[in-house]
Amino acid sequence: MNLIEIDNLKTYYRTEAGDVAAADGVSLSVSPNETLGLVGESGSGKTTVAKSIIRLLPDNGDIVSGTVKYNGDDITEMSMKDVQRKIRWKEISMIPQNAMNGFDPVHTVGAQIIEAIRAHEDDTTKANARSRAKELFEDLGLDAERIDDYPHQFSGGMAQRAMVALALAVNPAVVLADEPTTALDVVIQDRILESISELQDEYDTAMIMITHDMSVVSETCDTIAVMYGGRVVEVGDADTIIKNPRHPYTLGLRNAFPDITADSQELISIPGTPPNLVDPGEGCRFAPRCPFAEERCWEETPQPEEYDDGLVVECHRADEAEMLREEASKRDTWKQAAEEREQAVTDGGPDE
Ligand SMILES: Nc1ncnc2c1ncn2[C@@H]1O[C@H](COP(=O)(O)OP(=O)(O)OP(=O)(O)O)[C@@H](O)[C@H]1O
Fold first, then answer.
1. Is the ipTM here above 0.95?
2. What is the pTM of this model?
3. Whose CA is nearest to atom 26 of ligand 1?
């Protein structure tokens, strides 16, 4: 049974330029003990999806349609009071992008973890909560004595680990981890990911791991959802997505982290820029950057389709995956497409 079930979620930000369709019809699900990796370039809508789940959107952000069900209850329909009392932190916790911002600077880190534990478990004594906080610190490779330090006394990596401790302290059913290891060195990154997965096994926690780094997801995730321009363009089993994806965008992303695949050694970035989410228009949002775009890709928005490898993909040409994989592994494919596009823009300019 799915713990979290997101169906056709649309979350928009109101701006002077118009509504930014940051999540534009996102459907996803997560079950207990599953780790779902949410990947995609900056601005693709990953954080928006996570913040929508626990209703932590900024003032100009609105869930305009769709549902987010937790254990069958639609979080989007709950009063904010109920979300705060019953869901946020207790059932679903979030490790934010910048851990330092997650802590209150005037209280010690330990005091904040102890308070979180006691706020959700009325019968836990302070001493018990304290020993649990210390245990978590140790699990995460932190010196247990440091729980009496203030947040500013921690380095970035330590604060990040302490944030993981805080997020896990209340044994939530779901943890939303937003780039939990960005800006940390590789050794600490590995250690954090390892600790998270150990604790996850112990408590059967489900996790949504947001990252732009394909190598992080390859190590930790069971399922991967690839976001582009506010939509999930490809989702399925992590191994399959990493080794044999179908969407050209995933193929492009994979090229940027060549160490995760044996057959592509070159580091190739995807030329072009992400779409404008104020008025994305008809057609595939990736078409302007896609080396394989045909006429219909510009005109018809591809709908999600499931293939026999279990992948659900939004691409008109996903059934030609073998050819796409072969061609996408060549630098020239991306370079030529970008050059042709540039030429078309020049040719198509206003007539003098
Ligand atoms: N408060 C806001 N007001 C207006 N637009 C916003 C706001 N927050 C985010 N956006 C826009 O919504 C889109 C999705 O942003 P989001 O932060 O969800 O993406 P992301 O994939 O998590 O990126 P990153 O990895 O940089 O966090 C982007 O175009 C972003 O500029």
1. yes
2. 0.90
3. 42
